[in-house]
Amino acid sequence: MAKFIVRRLLLMLLTMFLVTIIVFIIIEITPGNVARKILGAFATPEQEESFRRQLGLDQPPYIRYLNFLMGSDWRAERLVGMPLRRIKRPGTEFYEWWAIDKDDTLIRWKLEGEDLIAMRLQPDDTVIKSIDNSRWQTDEADVSTFWGIDIHDRAILWEKGSGQTYWMRSKAGGFWVEKASGAKKYIPLQKGIVRGDPGISVQTGRPVAETLFRRLQNSAILAGLAFVIVMPLALVLGLIAGLNEGKALDRILSIGGLAGTSTPSFATGIFLILILATWLKLVPGATVFTSERAIFEKPEMLVLPILTLALIELGYVLRITRASMVEVMKAAYIRTAFLKGLPYWRIVFKHALRNALMAPITVIMLHVNWLMGGLVVVEAIFGFPGLGNYLYKSGLYKDIFAVEAAAVVMVFLAVGTQLIADIIYTFLNPRIRYA
Fold it and tell me: Is the pLDDT of residue 329 over 80?
């Protein structure tokens, strides 16, 4: 058992590694211009190229893949010549990158004209600015350059007197504005998906990890509640239908389950909104998140999304369970148990139930992943800010870092749930042996 789990874990790691390569290649070959989507249709080629360099998209593909997987801070440290640290200052919402100077103070820079301005973080969380032109390094061609960390969490190569312009997102309104004193090279700092930092969203300008975690948390709550409600109910109803094969109860449950499963999720959701929200006014028709704890403050918002998922999933798992139970009850060892005169319910619970649950367990584990990421339609109908909706919108916008991170999380859920399913198999059927 232990060897099997270790072997599956290693296989899962290999699968995840191959998936990161496939996801990266798909994003690379997918049509779309990130710079034009952000800057607008009338952006000049110079503006597009400046923006691509700021995102690090001018780097070779293998470098960008390593940044996505392992991070870019280790490479930036060698260029800057100082250790780098990612911190979260008191009163701020996001993490910031700083260099560690020789005196152990945290320092960043910005360029004003031809002057390097050093910003040192003090113990009281204040920042002291000073001119730091001594850091310029002049080569044989009399060109002065400096690698440093800027205020936008990038390792930057400044060139004295270059006077290049660049585009940046303004703090007021999120508009993109033109600035002077640009740099020659940019390395956006990130720790990589392996260390939980896939980068900054080009759509929102916020760290992907923090936004993705909130969306994953929202979907986990929605999917978890639906799972807890639907799966036990579907298993029980499926077993009842299977034990009453061909009877009226079996036909009612089977037809009802088929109707719920075959109806598109958007039609089910709209129908429930019309009945329960518009006509009866029992629950809200949309999920409006005014705070991070909106789910707990107004749990009634989850009634319609969960009910929609329940109607879709209930019938599918019910019919799989029914078919499995019918097949097991016709097996030779079950007939032998009847011939021996064993009580009916003892045969069902001791001999048939565990084997009948193996097929439904497979389906349930597969649908855990679907519940987490395949909720795009349901989340869109009710305005629910979950993982599926996040992946869909990021894909439309071609938010490369967000799409890559969300896709890897989805695959991790799929592979992880299959590992859990394989482990459960060994408890349901001790005869299973893994070589």
Answer: yes
The whole domain housing 114 covers 43-70+72-189
φ, ψ dihedrals at 183, nearest 5°? -115, 170
Residues 417 and 307 in one domain: yes
Q: Let me know if residue 198 belongs to a domain.
A: no
Residues 121 and 232 in one domain: no
Q: Contact 211/219 with Cβ under 8 angstroms?
A: no
Specify the DSSP class assigned to residue 202: T
Q: Is the pTM of this model over 0.85?
A: no
Residue 285 confidence (pLDDT) = 80
Do 78 and 144 belong to one domain? yes
Q: Which of 375, 258, 366, 230 is CA-nearest to residue 316?
A: 258
CATH of the domain at 422: 1.10.3720.10
Question: Greater confidence, 222 or 38?
Answer: 222
- Please report whether residue 79 resides in a domain: yes
pLDDT tens digits, one per residue of 137-183? 888 888 888 999 998 889 999 887 765 666 565 544 445 566 655 67
420 versus 137: the higher-pLDDT residue is 137
In a domain, 20, yes or no: no
Q: Which residue has the higher pLDDT, 361 or 256?
A: 256
CB 189 within 8 A of CB 76: yes
Strands 127-131 and 115-121 turn out to be antiparallel
Distance CA 196, CA 375 (A): 24
Final residue belonging to a domain, choices 156, 189, 222: 189
Please indicate whether residue 371 or residue 338 has the higher confidence score (pLDDT): 338
Task: Tally the domains of the chain.
Answer: 2
DSSP letter at 431? T
Contacts 24+ apart (CB under 8 A), 339-342: none
DSSP strand pairing (106-112 vs 96-100) = antiparallel
Strand partners, 129: 119
* Same structural domain, 132 and 222: no
Going from the C-alpha of 379 to that of each of 215, 306, 338, 385, the distances in angstroms are 11, 11, 49, 7
Percent of the chain surpassing pLDDT 90 = 12
**β-bridge mates for residue 148, sequence order:** 156
Mean of pLDDT over the chain: 82
Picking from 198, 232, 230, the residue whose alpha carbon sits closest to that of residue 216 is 198
- Backbone torsions φ then ψ of 207, nearest 5 degrees: -60, 135
Same domain, 246 and 364: yes
Residue 296 shares a structural domain with residue 367: yes
In a domain, 126, yes or no: yes
- The pLDDT of 70-74, averaged and rounded, is 91
